[in-house]
Design brief:
Helix content is 67%, strand content 0%. It has 115 residues and is mostly helical.
Length: 115
């Protein structure tokens, strides 16, 4: 949790001290602004920091273990977590249990929606 607080403080600092008054962003729509910020060293650092927060979120969700909801499981799939790791973390190490759970929600054990 401390890592998240440090990352959030750094993001706040960068936005407040660099991005808030940035001359390059004035008058640009969100698409142009995204391109501009990605080319900026501060913007690149912000993207990196955001990725760290996302990784921490996956770890927090996986740590829920048997308390993971279906939304949590979908989030893990969408974040690229291996299905076997999800199954293990959710306490459904028996393949049939995980398959039945996923099928009941309309998904295959690979995380793809069933047709």
């Amino acid at each position: 949790m401390l890592l998240n607080q440090k990352v959030l403080k750094r993001i706040t600092h960068l936005e407040k001290n660099h991005c808030k008054n940035c001359e390059k962003k004035k008058g640009k729509d969100s698409t142009a602004l995204t391109r501009t910020c990605k080319a900026c060293p501060i913007g690149q650092e912000l993207l990196s920091l955001g990725s760290q927060l996302e990784l921490n979120k996956v770890e927090r969700v996986m740590a829920k273990g048997k308390d993971m909801t279906f939304s949590d499981i979908r989030f893990c799939f969408d974040s690229g977590v291996d299905p076997d790791e999800i199954k293990k973390a959710a306490g459904m190490s028996h393949g049939k249990t995980f398959k039945k759970y996923m099928n009941n929600h309309g998904y295959a054990t690979s995380g793809r929606k069933l047709i």
